[in-house]
Every structure is written in structure tokens, then in C-alpha cells.
Amino acid sequence: MEPILKGRGLVKRYGKVTALDRCDFDLMPGEILAVIGDNGAGKSSLIKAVSGAVVPDAGTVELEGKEVRFTSPIQAREAGIETVYQTLAMSPALSIADNMFMGREIRKEGWRGKFLRQLDRQTMEKLARDKLSELGLMTIQNINQAVETLSGGQRQGVAVARAAAFGSKVIILDEPTAALGVKESRKVLELILDVKSRGIPIILISHNMPHVFEVADRIHVHRLGKRLCVIDPKDYTMSDAVAFMTGAKEPPEAQAA
Amino acid sequence: MEPILKGRGLVKRYGKVTALDRCDFDLMPGEILAVIGDNGAGKSSLIKAVSGAVVPDAGTVELEGKEVRFTSPIQAREAGIETVYQTLAMSPALSIADNMFMGREIRKEGWRGKFLRQLDRQTMEKLARDKLSELGLMTIQNINQAVETLSGGQRQGVAVARAAAFGSKVIILDEPTAALGVKESRKVLELILDVKSRGIPIILISHNMPHVFEVADRIHVHRLGKRLCVIDPKDYTMSDAVAFMTGAKEPPEAQAA
Amino acid sequence: MSTSDDYEKTVSTAASDVAAFDDPHKGFVGRFHHALHTTPALVPLIVLLASILVFGLALGSKFFSPFALTLILQQVQIVGIVAAAQSLVILTAGIDLSVGAIAVISSVVMGQFTFRYGLPVEVAVACGLMFGTAIGALNGWLVAAMKLPPFIVTLGMWQIVLAANFLYSRNETIRAQEIAEQAPVLQLLGAKFQIGGAVFTVGVIMMIAIVLILAFILKHTAWGRHVYAVGDDAEAAELSGVNVRMTLISVYAVAGFICAIAGWALIGRIGSVSPTSGQLLNIESITAVVIGGISLFGGRGSILGTFFGALIVGVFTLGLRLMGADAQWTYLLIGVLIIAAVAVDQWIRKVAA
Amino acid sequence: MSTSDDYEKTVSTAASDVAAFDDPHKGFVGRFHHALHTTPALVPLIVLLASILVFGLALGSKFFSPFALTLILQQVQIVGIVAAAQSLVILTAGIDLSVGAIAVISSVVMGQFTFRYGLPVEVAVACGLMFGTAIGALNGWLVAAMKLPPFIVTLGMWQIVLAANFLYSRNETIRAQEIAEQAPVLQLLGAKFQIGGAVFTVGVIMMIAIVLILAFILKHTAWGRHVYAVGDDAEAAELSGVNVRMTLISVYAVAGFICAIAGWALIGRIGSVSPTSGQLLNIESITAVVIGGISLFGGRGSILGTFFGALIVGVFTLGLRLMGADAQWTYLLIGVLIIAAVAVDQWIRKVAA
Amino acid sequence: DGHSVSACLITKTDTNPFFVKMREGATAKAEELGITLNSYAGKVDGDHETQVAAIETCIANGAKGILLTASDTSSIVPAVQQARDAGLLVIALDTPLEPIDSADMTFATDNFLAGELIGKWAAASLGDAAADARIGMLDLAVSQPSVGVLRDQGFMTGFGIDVKDPSRWGDEEDDRIVGHDVTAGNEEGGRKAMENLLAQDPTINVVYTINEPAAAGAYQALKSIGRENDVLIVSVDGGCPGVQNIKDGVIGATSQQYPLLMASKGIEAIAAWAKDGTKPEATEGKAFFDTGVALVTDQPADGVDSIDTDEGMNLCWG
Ligand SMILES: Nc1ncnc2c1ncn2[C@@H]1O[C@H](COP(=O)(O)OP(=O)(O)OP(=O)(O)O)[C@@H](O)[C@H]1O
Ligand SMILES: Nc1ncnc2c1ncn2[C@@H]1O[C@H](COP(=O)(O)OP(=O)(O)OP(=O)(O)O)[C@@H](O)[C@H]1O
Ligand SMILES: [Mg+2]
Ligand SMILES: [Mg+2]
């Protein structure tokens, strides 16, 4: 099977810091790939490089076997890659519906959409509400309330719902449960499994080992800007994974990248 | 035994939201008290109310049996309460040493300190370096580098080290490990136990149940702006705790607040 | 961590009453607070109506006549148009100090192209509008692509454009009489018509039209939403799929275009083409925007608020003049008004929160 | 979550090579880059030296004489002093548009208290300095306690103070000859002394002294560190133990005091007390601050940079005039310079990053 | 009180002593004649919009007449026409409108003549040395407002310099001119502009200044390099501090104008207009009512009429 998303030799430098150091990366169709690693290992940089948020200094990215060069997140989105960044990327003063449809607004039918370029708020609001309740993530009364009035957990939920609603090929989640409570984390994990059941592959970055071992099909261990190895959660224990990612243990030869 | 820090009937409203709803609170000398609760339950609001970061609308706070009314974090600090806020509260452009001694700078001896009010950088840098390495938290080469050049984990480390170094009566940590990797989290937990061994009581807010059950002496379960109950981790399981805090189970009568 | 159990499973039986919101519509006061919150233009509107009422009571029919009230509209038309442009820029968390200079040089281009080069006046007007747009786009490019702070870019551009204006125009005024004879289209926006005692000019209609069109665009088109998103948090906007660079460049370009229209209206209002007019437009437009409740940090506020803000200043200026206040006292009171308006705004927002 | 083990214990055996930093001092280029990063005043200093060199080569001894070079110092002294005050405010992420008005009204108070009320001149000067400080403190109070945006507070204050200035002074100038006869202390900062061909005034020394003292205070006292912390992130500063309110009020008050000194220097420079001077000081001081590399978002930059920034503008103004550029072209080129200086600054920072 | 006569005074600014005195003169006369006077002013020199708004306010206020010193002499015409159509008498003070007959009458100084007088005096005082004089020109603003141009070009004409285009300064080719710089008409600008010109050519020995504050600033610059006694400074205005400065030897000569006279004549004209509709007449041979200009100096030169500073002090206005 060919990877749906493939990175080769990715390099990204920030001044003196090398965030990505000739890093390889593979996501298989339909799988949940977890990416784990220490703080500052370069996990966020990796997903930014494949999702167009930063342009890598070197290396190639292939989507479904075709090489792509995203220079902005918009291009990646158009290609079907949807990302929830660690910083969430929401406009606090705008409404939930506005945020969900940011950059892919729906215009009215007929002349008002065509010539006045008027937005179809009703449709967008209805769709946003549907997505949110379909995902069962929360009970939001007012789809027009500003995102800044939501709690951290609700905000994270909206971001994940946006990605799940629009991602057609790949969904990337960068630490989606970091600030969440037990209950809220649980909901996000359920959502991830739900998206997977629809056949869409997911990249999940997390520091929470139990979560990773619960949902991941494969685990990409990232260390010092590189893919150290890829392991199967059924073959290794959490201790092994932590040992690999912290450098306490050598990675298994066969699966080393 | 009398609580070292005691809150009674604390109320805090933000517009229509009631973040604290006649909340009580007790911290015993020498203990590690964990505070758990859903997102938005009001945990951060509670510790802000007892540490002077917000002034409660109603209710009283007692430190060592004497009523105190802090109107700014400075007053709480002067009374010996040191807090690591969820947002860390660092000045990104200033150095590690500057940040550690912010608001309690050390002046030079003699006329230069007295009349020119000149800071004693050498002493402050030496002390900062000592604190950081004494706590074994990290190997920082340059104590003068700007905090913004540190990784998230290093930053968290500096914040915790600052609190541990200066807190004389109470140390409060609001989700100190939320953004940290496995290794970094571990170090913070070790640090917490180390501080406790010096006899200083600690309040720890965390969503990480295993961590809470590992280090806490007592667990304050917060729900809907109130203290629901206080439980002993030796008497209850994590499932119980989660059930209480999410409202799935009634709290034990005896310990209900 | 030796005590391990399936604690996370517990949450499936958890109560789900957390994300429910209070119904904010509680009685009249509640609804009023809610309205203040969701309609940022309401506060300046209330201030505007209150000040009209106060001056009306104090001055009687002198102030409360169709003539005087429409006079205010005429007096604020230039500032109103420029402030609309300024609002756009400030909504993106920028600031444009070059608005006045762009307006003036555009009017000079319109005049000189007609009279110096003998171009058909319609072409000259089009050139003026394009010129203003181009300067705006250059501002936008420097801000968006070169990532220079808007304050500096437009501060520099202000000086450059103003000096270029004096050099190019040779400080010569094109007289109203000549324009009326040879190129009346230049004065189009000054054309008057009466409805009862009320006197309107095409320029006033233009101002109102620009405000309404921008209000529609900002609220009902994707571009408008993107303007708010960029002002709110440019990085988040970029990550969530907004082309920040093109949004910024287009905002500054549109602002330049609107300023050029203001330059055209300026010819209508003063009759002639004068390179020395419009010197205070940048400060006056920022004042109107701020009194109108748009945050200088971007992303919050409405263009209708700016319109009311400009009118508030106009009402105060005319009212104080009619009351015979000395010019310096008027400036002093406008200064107090600026601070007071923002203080009231802050206070209302706090109470309403 | 059924696979549970003591995985966290593993980390005790983990490698600890993560927090190590590269040694940034690699060779000359590396060290230069590092210096650019840690010494924000270096970039404007380089630009300053380069521009002196270029004009020196182009104009020879006409420009490169002690006379011309010290003339620049004399010409920038007022702007330099005011820009020092402006720097303080901008470091706290504020802005002060009222600096020029404060300087002028302080000089008027000094003059009128001496001549209208016959107070001893030393007392009058002290009153002027106190008056400037008081206006600054009022600005600070409105910003810190009322939480109003600095731009608006000082915009309003600018108008209020300027109008009050004209009303109070009745637009009357106090002549240089009268001052020289009856109250020479007012002209103290204009007193000259020569060292070789170089001419210095007490005002120039004052400017340099203010810059050096502020540089010391900002770097070596707790208050200075607090100013940076407040500008960096006011909320974080508050939580980490800084009295943000008092810091802000004192910053604006000190800025008012320094502006009052600038007002005193103004008397020394123009000889007389004139209520119409200093109208452009706010824009000029902001220009100097920005060219000097202080971020308008606060918390970053150094006051020495501002000093160099003011000198850069002075060097360009005189240099261009000496090269025969006429006044209008000089304005235009200064506009270009402002944008270019910031672009170069951005570029150097990017390359050095 | 709709029955009493009201009038408006609109000046360029209300911060320049010249206009302040004009207002004082008008106020005094208005009180004497029982007229209500409202005064308006632009915010800065060149602030045209405020003047237009002021005219509109006067119309709304039902004033009988307007006294106006226009910032923009041509652009103001439509607004003036509107006022005249509404039955107001509009009198231009100090600065003629363009065309001059746009106002009902103009009470003004002949600014070109004012410049010419000081030019002649400077040339005569220098005598033969005038042929190789080094002249610094301190003008008003880069936007070249007409007062500044008239005085500047008048000075040159009086001094015997070919002015080329008389409607702008800076296009002359005479070698004796070191350069032009702008002062904003205040001391600060005067000093800086003088320093700039001195750096260009330290041998400057004749300085034309737009007004007396600029002259005072220029004097400070000269004094700081010890050349205050060998440079001839000439100026225009005739304000009391300016005349005092001539007495003290700061300025060589100045052309004095009479703003109080302009203002009081203007108020009288409005009173007459309100009473019986008579309009004021122009000075013979001129398109405006010349309120006169006199050269004030303590060193009279041959062939140039002048008054001394004692007389100048009696007539001065500020
Ligand atoms: N915009 C940036 N400018 C400078 N350095 C950066 C930038 N973004 C990331 N870095 C640096 O690159 C390295 C990798 O960062 P990255 O965010 O990819 O780590 P991460 O694995 O996602 O860490 P975490 O688990 O803390 O999110 C870090 O040293 C970081 O400081
Ligand atoms: N400054 C504020 N303004 C308005 N509402 C606030 C503010 N701070 C907190 N709140 C609201 O108060 C409630 C309690 O917030 P708080 O931060 O105390 O929760 P928490 O228990 O710390 O949650 P988390 O686990 O997500 O940190 C929330 O509904 C929150 O939205
Ligand atoms: Mg990351
Ligand atoms: Mg919290």
C-alpha cells in the first residue's frame, strides 16, 4: 500500500535552531498515526511543513503519490488536508459559524450571491449546528456567539469539529486534548475514532501515552528533529515508546527510519 | 490542625458567568492538595481569588488563621504565597534572571544600590543559576537569554523554579504539566515532592488523574464553581474521582463540603 | 502511578449539563445590555442622539433646523468618507496616516490632468481614483509583504505624498471659476439639491452610500469577514485559511480608492483644486473612528459607529460654534469629548459585560 | 486504556542532551549577528555612521567640520529630549501624542510665571517642570487607572493642552531681549561653550545626560526592568509582581517632566517664549523612536537607539540641505528614509536571526 | 436676540499675534457700535475646511457680514459666494481673494509693496556692497502661500533681483541668493532655517524673513556664531515686539501693517451695510482698500521713506 501522505528529507531551520533535520514521514490510508516526542522535538514543525503552514527549507511532500508544494495552509486545505493547530487558529471576536467557514464561505444562490457576493448565513449556520451536534461534541445554544466567550474545551471542540467536517483526505490534530479535562478529552478521542470509521486517515500529536496507545494504529517516534522509528502499539509497551523518544533506549533496527 | 490557607464563601462573577459560587477551600500545613474539575469548573478562578490575582466579590480568605484581603498578587507574594499561573506570567523579552527576580530585585550594596538604586546583576544571576541547577530542572547555559527563546517545557520549568525558590508559606501550581512531554512532566512532579519535603504545602491543579493520585495527600473536587467534596486518594479510585467531578456519582456524604 | 483503572470510562455516564448557556435575554435591562454587546454602533448612536438633543434644547431652532442639521452632514462629508477608509485599515489592526495626503494628491491629479494635460475630465477623474488606489496598494504591499509596521509605512508615505503633491502641483490652485466653466464634472460631488429646508449634496449622498456599502460588505461577504479575522489575529487567520497578504493589500488599496473619492468630494466642497487642503484629515479621521468605537487593536467595531463618530464631532463643532464658543475653547472641548467618549464607551462595556 | 504500565519511570534513564544550547559565538559573522541581536541600538548606530560617512564623502569639509556636526546636535536637541520621553512611553506599549504640547505649555508657564506674576525665575522654572509632570501624570492615570487607550488619551490631551496654551498665553511671545535682561536663567539651556571648532550648548549636554541617565535607569534599576515587563505583557507583569498601575503612571509622569525640560531647552534655543513652537514634536519624536528601533508594540528596544534615530534624521536634514536639495525634496526624502530605515532594520534582524 | 446686528470674523489661525490683534480690534469696534461679533479661526495655517465651515456657520447664525482672512484665497470663493447670495457682506482682510472681486471689498496691506520697501531699504543701506551681497531667504512654508510669495518676490524686486515667475519663489537664478528655507513663521523655524543656510554659506550678510518671529529666531542663530552685528535682517509685520526688536538692533527694518485698522474698518463697513446697504469703496487706483504699509527703521536710507521706531511703537499692533 502506498502512503497517502509522504514526506522525505524535510528540513526546517529557525535561525540557529534546526527544528526538522532531514525528516521522513509516512501516513497510510485509513490509519490513525500518532506522533510522539519530547517538547521541542519538532512535531509541530513537521505537521506545519506538510500542511503548508511553513515552507520547508528542503525535502519533498507527496499527497497520493503526487508531489505537492504548499506555500500556504489554504492550498493544503484545498487539497483536502485539514489541520487543527496547537494554537487552535480561531478569530476570537468572530462567531462559531464564521470561524467554521473561514476561507470557504458559502455564498447565496442567485444574483445576490453572484453579484453582491452575499454570504448565505442561514445555510452556514445550519451546517455548523448540524456538524457540531452530529459530532455530539457539545450543546451550543447560539451558533452566533463569539468564540472568545467559549471555554477552552468548547473552543477545542469547535476546532476539531471544523477539521472533521471539512477534511476529505487527511486530518491533522496537534495536541487536541492538552488543555482539556477528562470528560472533554474523552469526547475528542471518540470523535477521532468516529472520523477514522469514515475512512479518513488522522495524524494525532499527543503527549498522553495512554491516549496514544488506545487509538493509534502506528506510532511515529520523533526525536531531535528526525523520525527515530515507527512502532506498532501492539508490539511495544508505553515504557518502550517513552524510552525510545527520550533516548533512553536504542530504537528497533528493523523499523528505524 | 488548623488550615494554613482557608477560603470561605468565595464568590466571583464575570458578567453573567458565575465562576465561583460560595466556594470553600482548605489547605493543611505540609500537604499536597490537588484540585480537580472539569474545564471551566472554576479552578483557576479559585486560586486567583486566594492569591490576589482577582478580588472575590464576596467571601473571606484566611492565612494562618488571620484574615487577609489581597488586592494584588504582590501582596500575596509578600505574605509568602507563590503562584505559577496557567498562563505562566513571564515577560518574553526579558532574561531568565530578570523574570525570576521580577518585583523583588536585589540592589547593590553600598552607595550604588542606595542612591543609584543599581541592581546587583551578578548576585541575581548567581542565585537564579543556583536555583535552577539545585532543582536539577534543566541545564541552561546562559541565564541571560530571553525567556522567549526557551522551549515551552523550559519556560514552565523556570516558572516552577521561581515559585519553589521564593514561596515560603504556600506554593500554588495551576496545570504545571499541561503542555509538557512525558520527561518534562516527570521532572515537575519530582520537584513538587521535593518542595513538599521541605515542609511547604502545595496546591496542584491538574487534569492528569494518574499524576494527581500519585502525589496528592488530599483531593479537592471542584464542580460548577463549588467545592463538591474532598477525598483521600487512598480511599477512592480514579474512577470515583472522575465520577464525582463530572456529576456521574453523588459525592460521599461525610466529606461533602 | 501504580493505581491504575479505567477511570476515563466513567465519563460516559456523566451528567451533560455543562455546556448549556444562560438565556441572556432577561427583561428589558438584560436585552439592552445584550444589544449593546452585539451592536457596537449603538453606543456612539446614543451619544450622537443625546448630543443633538442637548444642543437642540440649548440653541433651539437655530440648531434644530433642517438647514443646520444637513449643514452638519455637509461639513463632515470629507472626514466621513476618509474615516470610512480609515475604519477599514484600523479593523485590520493597522493605521493609515497618509489618508489626507492621498485625498489631496488625488484631487490634484484630477485637476492637473484635466487642465495641464488637457485630458477629458472623466479620464482625469479615473486617473485620480486609480492614483489613490495605487498609493494605497503600495502602503498595503509594504505592510503585508515587507512586514513593516503600518504606522511607519503610512507616516513615511504621508510625507512623501505631501511633498510630491507640492512639487507636482507647483503649489498652484486651480480656480473654482475655471473648473465650473471647463470641467464641471470635477465639482460633481458638490452639486446641491434641496428637500424642504434640508440641503444635500451629491458628496453627502456619496458618503452615506460608501458607509452603507462598506457595512454590507464587511458583514455579508467573505472578504469582510476576512478583514475582521486578520485584525483579530493575523496568524490565526492565515492558519485557518485566509489569504492575509491579499486581504491586507486589498484593504489598503480600497482605503486609497475611498480617499481618492474623498479628494473628488473635496473639489466639490471647496470648488477649486487646492494642494494645501486636507492637512488634518488623518487626525480627524482617526478621532471619528475611535469615538465610533472601533478598537485600535483591530477586529472589533463597526463602520456605522465610525459614521456616528464623525457626526458626533460635527455636531459638537457646529453646536459649540453656534453657541459662540471661541475656537480654542472648541478645540479644548473636543479634546475633552474624545477622552470622555472613550471613557463612557469603556464604562458601558464594563457594565454591560 | 487497558495497557497500563509504569512507562513514566523510564525517563529517569533518559538522555539529558535536550536543553543544551549551541554556542552562538561562532567566528566574526556569528559574533556580529549575536551582537545585533542583543544590542538593539547597534543597527541605528551603524546607519548613523554610514550616513555621516556618505554625506562626509559627498560634501567634504562643509559637512565634516566640527561646526556642522555640532550644529546637528544643536538642531536635534529638542527632538532628542522629547524622543527620550516618547521612548519611555512607547516601551510600555503606549504612545504619547501630547509631548509637544506639554513642552510648549511648560515653557509658557515658565515665562508667564516670571513675567506676568513676577515670580523668581527659579520658582517659575520649577513650576513649569511640575506642570509638565502633572499633565504627564494625568495622562498616566487615565491610561493606567481608567484603562483608556494611550493613543486616545494623549490625542485628547494634545488638543486640550494646546488650546489651554493659547488661551493662557494669549498668544503673546516674550521677547528674547527681555528674557536675557530680566530672567537669563530661562535661557540657561541655550548657553554655549566651544571646544575647538565644536560648539556645544547646555541643552545638548542636557539631552545627552538625559539619554545616558535613562539608559542607566532602564538597564540597571528595578523600575527600568518593570517598564520593559509592562510593555512586554502587562498582565504577565502584574501577575509576576509588578505594580503595573504605578509603573505606568510614573512613566507618563517622567515623560511629562522630560518634556517640560524640553520646553525649557526650547526657550534656550529660540531665545524667546513662544506659544506657537513645537507643533511637530510629536510626529518628529515618534519618527526618531521608530528609526531608533524601538518596537511600537512595547517591551523591545533601547533609548540609545532613539538618540541615534534622532541624529539620523538630523544628519539627513542638514546633509540634504547642504547638497542643495530644496526644502520640499528634503521632506520627500525624509519620508523615504523613514520607510527605508525600518525596512533595513527588519532585514538585518531577519538575516541575523 | 435676533434684532441686533451680528458679524463674523474668520482668521487663518487664532494663534498668530497678527490675527489675535485683528480680533481685538474688531471686538473693540464691534462693542463700540453695538454689534455681536463671533470669531472663528483655522486650526493651523492652511486649514481651509474649517474656514468654509465657519462661513456656513455664519450663514446659519444669520450674521450680517463676514470679515475674512482666507487661508486658501481661491478655494474659498464658492463659500464666499454662498454667503453673499444669502445677503451677507463679505470683506476680505489682509489677504485678497482670487479673483479679488469675489469679496465685496478687500481691506489689506499691499504685501508685495511691503516686501519691496524692505528690499529697497536693504539695497540702499548696503550701497555698493549690494552688488555682491549674500542673501538668505527665510520663507513661510513649502506650500508657498500667496502672502509669503508676495513678500518674498517684493523684497527681491526692491533689492533689484530678477524674480522670474513672480508667483513662486525658488526659481530665481541670481547668484547673490544663497538659498530659501522655510520657517513656519515662528522662532524655532527661523533659527533652524538660518542655521541650515549658514551651514551652506557662512558669509550670508542679508536675511529676508517672512515675519518678525522668524527674524528673532534667525537672530538667535546668528548670535550663536557671533555674527549678529554684521548681518542685515529685514522683515514684515510691524508687531510691537518686532518694532522693539528694531529698537534693540535685532532687525534692521520692517514693513509695518495695520491689522487693527483693517478690522475696525471692516466692522464699520458691516455696520453701514446693515444700516442702509452701502458698500465700502476701494482706494483710488487699486482694486482694494489699502490700509497702508510703512517702513520702520532707525537707520533711514536714502530714497526710501520710513518712520522711526518711536512712531512705529505708537502704531504697532501686538
Ligand atoms: N517560529 C519559530 N521561531 C523560532 N523557533 C521556532 C519556531 N517554531 C518552532 N521553533 C523551534 O523549533 C523547535 C521545534 O519546535 P516544535 O514546536 O516543532 O516542537 P514540538 O515538538 O511541537 O514541541 P511541543 O511538544 O512543545 O509542542 C523548538 O526548539 C522551537 O523552539
Ligand atoms: N477574565 C474572565 N472574563 C470572563 N469570564 C471568565 C474570565 N475568567 C474566567 N472566566 C469564566 O469563568 C469560568 C471559570 O473559569 P476558570 O478559568 O476558573 O475555569 P478552570 O476550572 O480553571 O478551567 P480550565 O480547566 O479550563 O483551566 C469559565 O466559564 C470561564 O469562561
Ligand atoms: Mg508542538
Ligand atoms: Mg484553569
TrEMBL record, chains A, B:
Keywords: ATP-binding, Nucleotide-binding. SUPFAM superfamilies: P-loop containing nucleoside triphosphate hydrolases. Residues 5-249 form the ABC transporter domain. Pfam families: ABC_tran. It comes from the Bacteria. One of its GO terms (molecular function) is ATP binding. This is Sugar ABC transporter ATP-binding protein.
Automatic annotation (TrEMBL), chains C, D:
It is a multi-pass membrane protein. InterPro entries: ABC_transp_permease. GO terms for cellular component: plasma membrane. It comes from the Bacteria. One of its GO terms (molecular function) is transmembrane transporter activity. The keyword Cell membrane applies. Keywords: Cell membrane, Membrane, Transmembrane, Transmembrane helix. The keyword Cell membrane applies. The chain crosses the membrane at residues 41-60, 67-85, 91-111, 123-142, 148-168, 195-218, 249-268, 280-297, 303-322, 329-348. CDD domains: TM_PBP1_transp_AraH_like. It is found in: Cell membrane. Its main location: membrane. This is ABC transporter permease.
